[in-house]
Design a protein that fits this description.
Elements lengths: L2 H9 L5 E5 L5 H8 L5 E4 L2 H10 L5 E4 L8 H4 L5 E5 L2 H13 L4 E7 L12 H12 L8 E8 L7 H22 L8 E3 L6 H6 L4 E4 L1 H4 L4
The chain binds pyridoxal-5'-phosphate.
The site of pyridoxal-5'-phosphate has 13 residues, from strand 8 and helix 9.
């Protein structure tokens, strides 16, 4: 059984879907997985995503999982399915603007900073509240985006208990957000958490989207 078959078999007994993270991998490698039935692929760089989107079958659902600069939103707005990595209102406004130009409503996840590691990416709870207050305001201009959930990356560690605690905290923030702001909007449903090394823990903690790269495609150089 290939790792793809093993993972999809495992996921078939859960509510979790697979984002096959294909960054640095060739169109041929992606097509091989596509031919086994995979349709959701994740990339972290806009340029690479554009090249692959051009080359590959049009029924692929592309997810952007990496940091997105405002000036690059316009290139992906016509086709991107979900942007996992939104962590500021400024970026949200830009996505809304470009989605409108494309006559689309784009799904986004708010990326939360939950790990121990220092990084400039990911919102904290205060920033999330600010974003949701804006999004949920009656006269909000954010009509061309749908915030469908949260994304987070756990600390890169062998300490499974720490990882589980971080995912649990993300789930708590998710529930808080859902209950406080999105009661009437049942499209706040996605919890994007779990990668090759920690996806089993993430599934136990309620992940709906696991983002798996190296376990499917082999190590990246
Ligand atoms: C690369 C990447 C992944 C996948 O990592 P693997 O360890 O190869 O599974 C998941 N999420 C994000 C945001 C990534 O950049």
């Amino acid at each position: 059984m290939s790792s793809y078959e093993a993972i999809t078999d495992e996921l078939s007994r859960t509510n979790t879907r697979l984002v096959a993270v294909s960054k640095t991998k060739s169109a041929e490698e992606i097509l091989a997985l596509y031919n086994q039935g995979q349709r959701i692929f994740g990339e972290n760089k806009v340029q690479e995503l554009l090249e692959k989107h051009e080359l590959l079958p049009k029924d692929i659902e592309w997810h952007l999982i990496g940091h997105l600069q405002s000036n690059k939103v316009k290139y992906i707005a016509p086709f991107i399915a979900i942007i996992h990595s939104v962590d500021s209102l400024k970026l949200l406004f830009e996505i809304n603007k470009e989605a409108k130009k494309s006559n689309r409503v784009i799904k986004v996840l708010i990326q939360m900073h939950i790990a121990r590691e220092e990084t400039k990416f990911g919102a904290d709870e205060k920033e999330l509240i600010e974003i949701l207050e804006y999004y949920c305001a009656e006269n909000s201009i954010l009509q061309n985006i749908t915030i469908t959930g949260l994304m987070g990356m756990a600390t890169n560690t062998n300490d499974d208990e720490l990882i589980a605690n971080e995912f649990r905290r993300l789930k708590e923030i998710f529930s808080f957000a859902k209950n406080t702001y999105l009661l009437n909007k049942n499209n706040f449903t996605e919890l994007s958490m779990g990668m090759s090394s920690d996806y089993k823990i993430a599934i136990r903690e309620g992940s709906t989207l696991v983002r798996i790269g190296s376990l499917l495609f082999g190590k990246r150089l």
